[in-house]
Specification:
There is one protein chain. This protein has two domains: 123 residues, T-fold (Roll); 154 residues, Roll (T-fold), CATH 3.10.520.10. The strands form four sheets. It has a nine-stranded mixed beta sheet with strand order 1-2-6-7-10-13-14-15-17, with helices on one face. By secondary structure, it is α+β, with helices and mostly antiparallel strands. The chain has eight helices and 17 strands. A hairpin with a 2-residue loop joins strand 6 and strand 7.
Length: 360
Amino acid sequence: MNQSKEIIRLKKNTRNTLLLLVTMLLLASWLRFVMPKSVKLERESYKLGTVVRLTVYGTDEAILEKTANDVMEEITRYENIFSVNIPTSEISKINDTPQTNVRVSTETVDAITDSLKFAEETDGMFDPTIGPIVRLWRIGTEYARVPEKEEIDKALSYVDYKEVSVKGNMVRTGEKQKLDLGGIAKGWITDRLTEKLKKDGIHSALIDLGGNIAVIGKAPKGPTWRLGLQHPNKSRGEYFAVVNAMNTSVVTSGPYERFFEKNNVRYHHIFDPFSGYPANSDLASVTIVSKNSGQADALCTALFVMGQKKSLEFLDAHKDIQAVLVAKDAKKVFLTAGLKNSITIKDTSMTVEVIGDFKN
């Protein structure tokens, strides 16, 4: 009798096990149907004077392919509008006819307007009329040189963002002024590309315009993207910190990016609009984390030019801006309070000072 009960119980257990396996197989098939496999698509090209990279994730490879191609074409289009190295660009047309009203696209108006706004907010530490100084030094080209002081002083007389006026679609610059949007263009373009990707239904992506990085949505293997911050004193790809980011941009600037040496002196590409020389900053790098990549781009330049004391005062007065400042000796990191829970300092030799109170 007991043996018969045991056989019945065994049959029931076997039947239940088989039923569970069938259910699991049906569930797996259903999940594959409703949750198709994620596809990763990458693009890389040399544009905007740097290597640009785009990584998008989704489930429809054809859509990703079209979107990625469209984005790369957009970058080229913006380059043809903003580049001072392209004679037919709208910025070149403005520069070729100073003291003249030049009709330009709405995009150029918006980019210049944003530049002037950030120049005003930083008391000219960021100045889009720095063009005459940039042309004089030619850093980043094979013709880089150290100009004579007289040359610098003359070029400086044309650097003043307050001389630029924008009315409707007309832009007018002052005498012999040269616009150079190199300090904001990549960030400004990044913002427009981010808007486009979201509009096209992309929920997970990374845009890298030569160090100007923006991320959309969640990372493919976690809730946040982990973005490394370049160590200013080490080889490219060696990070002193990692930022956890989602739906934001991370922009870093430092003198290690572009420079040349003359008589054992290093001259970098971040110019002080008030001296005409590469900024003699006591900072090694500046990182801004912001949903507005154009703002982050401009502020990286401005805070580096300000140096440690003035940049800390600026951040104290603008508590909505989140930044990471590395001292010139790379032994100390200044970190705004809003980032302290989303950043990990990897270089244990660095001391960290959290500054200010977070204000959203």
